Amino acid sequence: MCKPLVGLFLASMGLAIAVQPFASAVDKDNKQQFVKTIVSVDFKIEESNPPTLVVMATGQVSSGGYSGTKLARATYVQPPADGIQDYQLVTVPPTEPSIQVISQVNATDRWKGYDKEAPWLKGIRVHGVGEGVMVKMLRAAQ
Hints:
mainly beta, three-stranded antiparallel beta sheet, 2 helices
């Protein structure tokens, strides 16, 4: 899926996003691709000044040899109505022959000062392809 289509897909889901919400994480040579299956998502809040939200995601890929895995945080024109921050897990597939066994890739995003930048934040959502979406709530909806 190319970058503009991701924006159209998320916009069609009713999300208020920039035209290319994950563009900063996808390399200019377009070698990266979206991880299809999200296996796990977790987070922790590091007590610092300001606090840092650390989001960790694991995805499943079709073989070994993937590299450059990143967790891309969407950039919004206005905060999402549901209070959920969207992420996309991207990785670079192998260019050389690799072991043909289902493997996992991991990435982390560190968001220092998230509480000031996103006071609306209630949870995180990491997108895979199709139904491959996982949501974690930071706090209960009010």
